[in-house]
Amino acid sequence: MLISKTIAEAQSACAQLRGEGRVVGRTLGLVPTMGALHEGHLSLARAARAACDAVAVSIFVNPTQFGPNEDFSKYPRTFENDCALLEREGVDLIFAPTVEEMYPAWASTFVIVEGVSDRLDGASRPGHFRGVTTVVSKLFHIIAPHKAFFGQKDAAQVAVLRKMVRDLNFPLQFVVCPIVREADGLALSSRNHYLSEKERQQALVLHRALQKVEEAVASGEGSSSKLIEAAGLVLAQEPGVRVDYIAVVDPDTLEDVSDVRGALVAVAAFVGTTRLIDNILL
Ligand code: PAJ
User: Within 13 A of 228's CA, how many CA atoms are on the CB side?
Assistant: First the structure.
């Protein structure tokens, strides 16, 4: 497993991993991450390992997707442990650039997917998706993967990036993998590190609210406002939890829908000061 900190080194390593110059090429998969790896990230690495001949994982805490009052400086960084986990998964390359390597002082180009970037998390975190689309575009150019793997956990990110891939004709397959949860239902997240034991229990209410929505749909409820109300009642039972949004939307456009079939039900809430998200597809 090669650990590369520079773009030039990663580019030449990836050319080799793709088998360039050979009669028969090899498929290269990319898993972009910000590190602090858990089973959710590892599930993406395994999906890439199963679907591709070679796998690259990027570890980069991307400053441009954090707002001025967000957790960039205290975001968990566990690089040594991440490398050990990825080695075990048979990953070929870790690309772990510095901030200066990815964003030299002279760089001034950003990628913006208009419309969808301003909904759900984009509405709560202005400029967040501009940072995500810019860094993921750069990773796609540097690594040039045939397939790129993302988690359904970040449903709005999936919508924004899928649109970017279509709009800008990135020559790759965009693969979305299911949400990995703890046994009690909590969606795995690097930000779960921030939770106290009490908050960890309170955080379960996000999953409970989504389960309530699933039950309501199973018993015939088809009105999105009724589903939002039902989820809101469950979330309100946990006083330590402040709702950011509850939305029933089209999974591609993130616009509100009245017909809930195939809709994305997404919630975001602050547990103490930690902002958590979760979702289900109906
Ligand atoms: P990060 O939060 O590290 O997540 C990296 C990838 O892991 C994302 O595609 C995310 O959806 C996926 N993931 C996280 N938790 C998951 C879970 N419980 N189950 C399944 N997949 C999960 O998302 C980012 O980083 C960044 O925005 C990035 C795309 C790397 C750009 O900086």
Answer: 18
The tens digit of pLDDT for each residue in 115-164 reads 999 999 999 999 999 999 999 999 999 999 999 999 999 999 999 999 99
Q: Which helix (H) or strand (E) holds 243?
A: strand 241-249
CATH number at residue 101: 3.40.50.620
- Are 205 and 148 part of one and the same domain? no
Model pTM score: 0.97
Residue 207 known to be catalytic: no
Residues with CB under 6 A from ligand 1: 32-34, 40-41, 43-44, 62, 65, 132, 135-136, 150-151, 153-154, 157, 177, 179-180, 187-190
Pocket test for ligand 1, best of 153, 157, 174, 280 (most atoms within 8 A of CB): 153
Retrieve residue 181's tokens.
């949860």
Domain that holds residue 244: 190-281
- List the one residue out of 124, 136, 152 whose CA is nearest residue 62: 136
CATH number at residue 202: 3.30.1300.10
- Count structural domains, the chain: 2
